[in-house]
Amino acid sequence: QVQLVESGGGSVQAGDSLRLSCAFSGGTMARYDVGWFRQAPGKEREFVAGVTWLGGGNKYADSVKDRFSMSRDYVKKTLFLHMDKLIPEDTALYLCHRPTGNFWGQGTRVTVSS
User: Fold this and answer.
1) Which residues pair with 108 in a beta bridge?
2) What does the alpha-carbon distance between residue 30 and residue 24 come to, in Å, rounded to a whole number?
3) Rounded CA gap, 95 and 45, in Å?
4) Residue 89: helix, strand or coil by DSSP?
């Protein structure tokens, strides 16, 4: 069974940076689309960043594309989300997702204070 485990969240001040990690176990990250979503309190879950295995590069939501970047370590089977210049609107539960099989992690919480 594929498991995704996120880590790296925390409480920070506006302007700070964080790096989130998503460790894959029980399966591979390679050859699949993978990405990050987030869900703020009282709001719908929204796409943050993703990549398709077949190419085309990383895709980002407009709200984060100049501040966040995603990377992958295939040897460690880990997906990263590098978040810079954090703003209070980035406060949310961040979840890792592999659409094939509809696998989700439990999420890691990010709180940004002004």
Assistant:
1) 94
2) 10
3) 9
4) helix
